[in-house]
Amino acid sequence: MAKTIFVNLPVTDLARSKAFYEALGFTNNAQFSDETAACMVWSETINVMLLTHPKWQGFTSRPIAPATSSEVMLAISCDSREAVDQMNDAAADHGGNADINPTQDLGFLYNRSLADPDGHVWEAVWMDMSGFSSAAD
């Protein structure tokens, strides 16, 4: 079995967050979704669990970070530079914030940062490994 990651995120409005992630290209896995949580699938091994605040608090007593904080930046790979741009455009058009950090364009690597409606930070990244040179070169 392939190793799988489930990123868990607390959200204030589950329907809004589900629609936001669908606009970015995620699909909903109804098997792991209900009125308190939605499993949003990016790939066979990457899933984002959107959890209402009461559901989230069933897993931890730690406080939920405010939307203005930087708890973590999640980088997600895209198939092209255009896909990076499309993801940022979709974020801006569906309740998120695009370009919350400066765009990075190194030729072989291109990324733009966005935040979902609850302030969770994502970095859409495209990388051309054929143009990458390691520090050992």
Summary tags:
alpha+beta; globular; 137 residues; 2,3-Dihydroxybiphenyl 1,2-Dioxygenase, domain 1; 5-stranded mixed beta sheet
Q: Please, could you describe this protein's structure?
A:
There is one protein chain. Helix 1 (14-24) packs antiparallel against helix 3. The chain has a single domain (5-131), classed as 2,3-Dihydroxybiphenyl 1,2-Dioxygenase, domain 1 (Roll). The model has no long low-confidence stretch (mean pLDDT 93). Strands 5, 6, 7, 8 and 9 form a five-stranded mixed β-sheet that branches. Strands 1-4-3-2 form a four-stranded mixed β-sheet. It is an alpha+beta fold and 137 residues long. It is built from three helices and nine strands.
Present the secondary structure layout:
Elements: E1 5-11, H1 14-24, E2 27-29, E3 37-41, E4 46-52, H2 53-57, E5 73-77, H3 81-93, E6 97-98, E7 104-105, E8 109-115, E9 121-127
Parallel strand pairs: 1-4, 5-9
Antiparallel strand pairs: 2-3, 3-4, 6-8, 7-8, 8-9
Helix pairs in contact: 1-3
